[in-house]
Structure prediction request, 325 residues.
Amino acid sequence: MKKAAKISIASILLLFAIFILFFHSYTIVDGKEIHQVISMKSLSVEQVLKKAGIKLDSKDVVKPFEGGKFKVNVIKIIRSRPVEIDIDGKKIYLRTTMQTVGDVLKEAGIKLGEKDKVLPNLKSKIRNDEKITVSTYRTKTTIVKIPIPYKTVYEVNPRLQKGKVIKFRDGKDGILEKKIIITYVNGKEVSKNTVSEKVVSPAVSAVYMSGNARAPEKYIKKLRVVATAYSPRVIETDGNPWRTATGMRSAFGIVAVDPKLIPLGTLMYVEGYGYAVAGDTGSAIKGNRIDVFFYSTDDAYRWGRRTVTIYILPGRWNFPNKLSY
Prediction:
């Protein structure tokens, strides 16, 4: 009997040794389920799972897996679970192996603000078909530029002929800059507050001159001349549109003349225009011709070319003093 027992033990040991040498055993832990796979040869992870008939989702995690071969014979499967995230009225569906709500949000790339609210809370454990609701609170600072409409101003010019209105300066809208904070809750705008405002450029009024001058009763002589008009554009002048032959700045009341006929500095009254001074010359202004100045090109075009009477007045303009009108 003792000899038979020894033989039995030896046989068992021999079979165990053969099993150890020639068989490979793999244990698969899949949640609460345990699977065993026996093989005469070494298998890869994929081969073991296939042999066990285990199917995986793309988001499931298998441990360990190193280069396709085992270094240990225990495989642990961490199953992914479906999760729904509701944020700003949008739903995000995903599968995850993360264990807490906070980790799931990080995995989804959702960054939370200080005032955001999350249900369940960030430390809550994830369950199957978990629904996570994120109530966001966001503010956005924006700069808004608002035009300031320019005003139109009429000024009486005692040098301009009565009843005549001309443009002195174009108007330009200003800019008001407002700093606004917009608040969004769950992606929807709930408030808009102006926190500061400043005028970055003031409006420039459009100015028109309204004349009240009449033709003089006393004068030295009268001349009939052809009168054209120009405005401060390079194309209409011989150089700098604001610079005259006498060094004066171009302005209403400065008239270009032929100095051979009308000496520079001559004071005059131009019919349809008003009081003026011979303060400029021009390459095309020869003989009984003058060129009157307007700030506005439109006014110059409206003047066109006409024959007018000019009244030569007593006195002379002392250059280079500026015009007072």
Notes: The chain has four domains: 25-79, 81-135, 140-207, 215-316.
